[in-house]
């Protein structure tokens, strides 16, 4: 993003000559305001002198000028590469300077990319390529169609059991919703409450499709009943285990060890003669 910004505003420096300067602590020149000159010189070679009490002169490539924080960054490395070049991985030495501390600013040379007439992002790094609008529209249409298909497969105002039956049919045969009824292969419709007797053919005399759908429906209803019974049994066992553990803990607290005073098997026998 920073490189794009540097390239997009780099062309502004064309209106500034190498002799364009701004003097005074944070003041505008008679030619170009300091903020505008800095923004237009991004990527160019500049010389910046800061105001007292700590006055210094820095010369290098202006990396960025932020109008929000009022800070500029300058790369003073002698091997600094211009924006968009392939040598931007070389070591750099950046200095952050508040705009209010700039006493003078001089543009030494324009950014190399500022002379390009092909657009501000010609030398952007990484390179920017044109978007394939047709491919993007096709991808969008495919995603929308998939969402619409998923929405059409979800029944409106039906029970979880009805949705499970629909999903089971749709895995092996074409299925769609017609209100709260399930239409299988456009040949058989299954009305609520989705029992075997609720199946009827859409085409009179199509007994083969009706028989097949009824067999599948009967099998899927048995699977659902087994799953429900297994889940109910698991919940019952879980409750019983927790209840038994709770009762066992309470019984353990009530039990107290009482010595048996009637047991004299271990008592020593009395000796005769005292």
From TrEMBL:
A Pfam match: AD
Residue span of region Disordered: 1-24, 244-274
Ranges for domain AD: 129-225
InterPro entries documented for this protein: AD (IPR047574), Lsm12-like (IPR039683), LSM12_ABD (IPR019181)
PROSITE patterns xref list: AD (PS52001)
Parts of the chain that traverse the membrane: none
Name under which the protein is recorded: AD domain-containing protein
Organism for this UniProt entry: Rasamsonia emersonii (strain ATCC 16479 / CBS 393.64 / IMI 116815)
